[in-house]
Amino acid sequence: MTIELNIFKPVEFAKEAIRISQKYSKYLIVDYDLILDRDFFVEELKQLRVVSSETTILIIASGFKPGDIFLKKIVNLGVYNIIISSAPQKIIDESINILQKPRVYRDAVQYDFDLSDQGKRKIKEQKDLVNHLGTKIIGILSGQQGIGATHTLMMFAHHLQLNHSVAIIEMNQSEAFSNFGQVNHHLKALDNRFKFKGVHYFFDVELSEFLNNYKNTYEYILLDFGDYHKVNRLDYFFMSDIKLCILSGIDWHLMQSESIYEELKTMDNKRNWIYLVPFIEKKYLKEMNKWMENELISIPFNANPFKPEKRAKKIFDEILKESNRENVFKKIWKGVIHGLW
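The chain above was modelled as a monomer; its predicted structure follows.
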């Protein structure tokens, strides 16, 4: 069975439907969040059902509730494999069950009605929480020294610790964590770790040994590599689940930032590294986007890294959400490819 993937980036379903209809596909998983032309989605899905009636279609419609007219239209097209959960692990579990045994109408009847048929009952909106899939490693590289990589990663760590167990490890020789631990009096003599506001800080550690001893202890492990010119073990960065790179957006640094990016992108063939630029002016962000092929995100000014503000929190949540979504699909298709279900 040939498996073709184009599932991690937003797509126009009309174009994909034409391509899919021209070849035999046993399974088609559609994440509605990634559909750009939603106004035409139902009609294009209808045409696809006509020409590819043997294809098992699974629709991930996270956030929708029973009673939504969109779900009713999907069921009326004979598509009964619908997942409305936003939790990555639940999406995986339900997808596995569907791949083993596709659903029939009685499994989807809950979606085949209008809100009016239920007396226009109120459906409480639930907060979209970001869920992790096992221990996740987040690595950050800096294009230059002193442009905010450690500050940004500390903000990320202290946002995560509100709901998760978090460790942050200094992977360079800057001694920033050691100095910080001594200043706030949380670091004991001759120790290489301390805890501050819920985050566990480590320095002078061998990462492979740390992972063997602590990987099941923390939900998130953040790695601060510092200036990439001085990194001894880039392979540790490559193994990170989320790869972040900090560039300077100061006007007199733009040419240097472009040069650094050209060098770094040779190691990122899939262009899945995320580039962050702290408190950049809009005109310079626009300038950087002219040559940037990766996702580029502006990080707002946040003086206190231990209290990330609302805008910064939203950005971190979006980074996690995209990563979780990729992990969901990778786990699903890994099982399909290797015949695990």
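The chain has two domains: 13-128, 136-318.
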